[in-house]
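Posted in: Protein Modeling Q&A

I'm a second-year student putting together a small comparison for a lab meeting, and my supervisor asked me to include a predicted structure for ABC transporter domain-containing protein. I've never done this before, so apologies if this is the wrong subforum. The sequence is pasted below exactly as I got it from our records. If anyone can share the structure token output, I'd also love a short note on what stands out.
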Amino acid sequence: MLSFDLQFARGGFELSTRATVGAGVTGVYGPSGSGKSTLLALLAGLLAPSRGEVRLGDRVLVDTATRRFVPTWDRHVGLVFQDGQLFPHLTVRQNLLYGHSRIATDMRRFDLAGVAGLLELTPLLDRRPTLLSGGERQRVALGRALLYSPQLLLLDEPLSSLDDRLKQQILPFLKRIKDETRIPMLYVTHAHSELDYLADRALGMERGRLLADVTD
Ligand SMILES: Nc1ncnc2c1ncn2[C@@H]1O[C@H](COP(=O)(O)OP(=O)(O)OP(=O)(O)O)[C@@H](O)[C@H]1O
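Accepted answer (user: helix_wrangler)
Welcome! Here is the predicted structure, written out as tokens:
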């Protein structure tokens, strides 16, 4: 369970929003510039709010009242962006294991073989990202985020750089991740078809505010 109550200002833009989000996929949609990526950056610890708090499970990640700010690397949050941002000099296997090898053994929820099987990456493990298709690269990015054993997955338009065929290929993998893990996911997209297929609920964002609070 994720809950947050956040305020943040940058330039003329102000974000002020709160919500509680449970397991499954919560879609976040809204006009360009409404603050969707900013919200994800605040949850991931890439930005600090001026005021507010973030709780994930039984951990307080941010509480400005007590000056608590858990850094990104210690949040157990997986991030996937539009362009998977793989390390080009590492193989698929090394990319997948990048976060995995940096977390304590007793915190690991998935193993390489399981994730590679789930995302059908086993035959690609020794390749470098430059020799992968866009869809394969995004599957590696998803696998890397999963192997980090996240308690929250933040997906920022993960399919928007792909053509329709690849989107249709990857959506079932996202569905499988949703069905086979209990990780809460925030899924930012402009595509209502993706929300229809994947999301358990959807939140609209406008001018820095989520239009409805979600509790479940
Ligand atoms: N690095 C930055 N520095 C300054 N302002 C920024 C920066 N990134 C975003 N902004 C501003 O913050 C506001 C929210 O942007 P954000 O990227 O969160 O919107 P978004 O809803 O994710 O948009 P999109 O759908 O186009 O990705 C916008 O006014 C944007 O111009």
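A couple of things worth pointing out for your meeting: DSSP finds six helices and eleven strands in the chain. The chain has one domain: 2-210.
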